[in-house]
Design brief:
By secondary structure, the protein is mainly β. It is built from no helices and ten strands. The strands form two sheets. A six-stranded mixed beta sheet has the order 2-10-9-4-5-6, with no helix packed on it. It has a four-stranded antiparallel beta sheet with strand order 1-3-8-7, with no helix packed on it. The termini are far apart. 30% of the residues are buried.
């Protein structure tokens, strides 16, 4: 089973930036897709960005042009650079690892890490 540890969240003003990190441990992480997801209060968890083992990426329309996902294969770590943050980006951000299609937006994973809180003030 993959272990996931997210970090880097915090409180930032609208227009600011944050960089999230996700350290994953377990078998086959380096050959899997890594993704970032978020859940705002009272809302369903949603896909934010995904990155494949060869560097291909997929983003939710709401974050395109503002967020960038990258990964360090050797460290089994994924990053989410978030720029031009908006109050509607406020949520708990989670990461996960899977072997689904890169364009999948499913969030029905068996387990999640503890997440990291991102709060954007107006």
């Amino acid at each position: 089973q993959v272990q996931l540890v997210e970090s880097g969240g915090g409180l930032v003003r609208a227009g600011g930036s944050l960089r999230l990190s996700c350290a994953a441990s377990g078998r086959f992480v380096s050959s899997s897709v890594m993704g970032w997801y978020r859940q705002a209060p009272g809302k369903q968890r949603e896909m934010v960005a995904r990155i494949g083992s060869l560097g291909g990426t997929n983003y939710a329309d709401s974050v395109k042009g503002r967020f960038t996902i990258t990964r360090d294969i050797a460290k089994n770590t994924a990053y989410l650079q978030m720029n031009s943050l908006k109050p509607e980006d406020t949520a708990v951000y989670y990461c996960n690892v899977d072997r689904r299609r890169l364009d999948s937006s499913l969030t029905d994973f068996d387990s999640w890490g503890q997440g990291t809180q991102v709060t954007v003030s107006s």
